[in-house]
Design a protein that fits this description.
Elements lengths: L10 H7 L14 H8 L5 H4 L8 H4 L3 H12 L7 H7 L12 H13 L6 H4 L2 H28 L23 H17 L8 H5 L9 H11 L1
Helix pairs in contact: 5-12, 7-9
Protein name: CCD97-like C-terminal domain-containing protein
Pfam families: CCD97-like_C (PF09747)
InterPro entries: CCD97-like_C (IPR040233)
């Protein structure tokens, strides 16, 4: 990122707080990842959060403490990464074959039955089913649009392709049961989150939260990767 375009990120403010010389190397704006590796625990929350302006979640994966904060967060089973929420938020990562929008359609039917016109059966009639079907189709169409957009974004002419194998997480093989498919999908979501590859996830909430630190970050990380 162009630091000159980031008025809230100033090397001088950060260096002054840490009582470091203004020509300190590495400068926060020039090499923010190396700077964070050295001083992550020395900066207050309102200052450390500014590094989101000059780093990406993927870049911050290089910092052991931040990887382990993400790991601890995923181990708390947050709702934002749960199967039901993640499947709708990142539909291109879910390869299930069920009809999309069924849950949304069911909720719409329940609303019509219980709330619309007092919920009297005679007045509601087929309205609940109609609204449910419409909501199910809307959700299914939303997923189709996202998948088409993703497919177009991912297309790269062969002669221009630039492979970056280190950025890829191993693809999950097609599962033998719905339960296994769900478990593998949940694992894929957790892995992509930890590696900074889950687009749209709230990384700032996790990356700068010192309460997620563990006593021995490196040991915790090694245990998780060894479990793989």
């Amino acid at each position: 990122p162009d630091v000159n375009m980031q008025p809230h990120f100033q090397d001088s403010d950060i260096l002054s707080y840490l009582v470091l010389p203004q020509d300190y190397n590495p400068l926060p704006s020039i090499d923010p990842i190396e700077f964070l590796k050295r001083h992550l625990h020395e900066l207050p929350p309102n200052t450390i959060q500014r590094f989101s302006l000059v780093t990406t979640p993927k870049q911050r994966t290089a910092i052991t403490e931040i990887r382990n904060r993400r790991l601890k967060f995923t181990e708390s089973r947050p709702r934002s990464l749960s199967f039901a929420v993640a499947r709708n938020t990142w539909p291109t990562l879910w390869q299930g074959r069920e009809r999309r929008g069924q849950e949304e359609g069911k909720e719409e039917q329940e609303w019509a039955k219980m709330s619309f016109l007092g919920g009297t059966e005679q007045q509601v009639g087929n309205l609940a089913k109609l609204l449910g079907d419409m909501e199910e189709e809307r959700e299914a169409e939303r997923v189709r649009i996202i998948r088409r957009t993703q497919a177009n974004d991912d297309f790269v002419p062969e002669e221009e392709s630039d492979s970056e194998e280190e950025d890829e997480i191993p693809e999950i093989q097609e599962s033998e049961s719905p339960e296994e498919a769900q478990a593998l999908f949940e694992r894929r979501i957790r892995e992509r989150f930890i590696y900074g590859l889950l687009e749209g996830a709230d990384y700032d909430l996790v990356d700068w939260d010192e309460w997620l630190d563990v006593e021995d970050d490196r040991d915790a990380e090694e245990r998780w990767f060894n479990d793989d």
